[in-house]
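Attaching the record inline, Q. Sequence:
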Amino acid sequence: MGEPSGQKLQSDRSADAALLARVAEGDMTAMKALYVAHADAVTRFVRSRVRDEAEAADIVHDTMLTVWRAAAGFQGRSSVLSWILSMARNKTVDHIRKQSRVTLGAVDETIPDGDPDPEAVLGATQDAARLRACVEELPERQRAVIHLAYFEDMTCGEIAGIEAVPEGTVKSRIYHAKQVLLRCLSRGAGK
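Structure, as predicted:
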C-alpha cells in the first residue's frame, strides 16, 4: 500500500536534512535538488505577500541564495522547509519595508481537464474571485498565517516559527482571519 503519512513526512524531513547537510559541504547537485523540492512552496509563500511576480521571483532567488550560504547554520530545531520559509519571510518583510506597500498574490483559477459543467465553472470562478477579494481585505499578518495554514498545510507551531511569534498569536490570527472571511463571504453571498 504505501507508508503512513507520518512516516512519509519523517522520511521527507530526513531527506531534506540530508540534502541540506550536503549543501553545507558545497554540493551544488544537492542544492538543485533542495531548490526543486521547495521552490514552489517558497514561491507560493512569497506570492501570498508580494503581488508583483518579478519581485516575488527576486525574493525567492535571494532566499535560496541565503539557504546556500547559511546551510551549515541549520540546527534541526524545525523542518528544513520551515527554516527556508523563515528566511523567505525575513526577505519578504525587508522587501515590503523597502517598498512601503503590502500586497497579496493572485489565486490560481485554472480549470482541470475534462468537460466541466459551465455553471459549476462560473460559480467556482465567482467564488474564487469573492474569496480572493475577501482575503485581500485581511491585514497582512492574517493573510500570511491563512496562507501557511491552508495553502502550505503547516501546523500552528511551524507557522509560529516562521512568523517569529508565539503559537497562541498564530491561533489568534487564524481565528480572527476566519471571522473576517466569514463576514466578508456572507456579505457577498447575498449579491
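The chain is about 75% helix and 0% strand. Helices lie at 5-24, 28-47, 53-70, 80-99, 118-137, 140-151, 156-163, 167-189.

More tomorrow.
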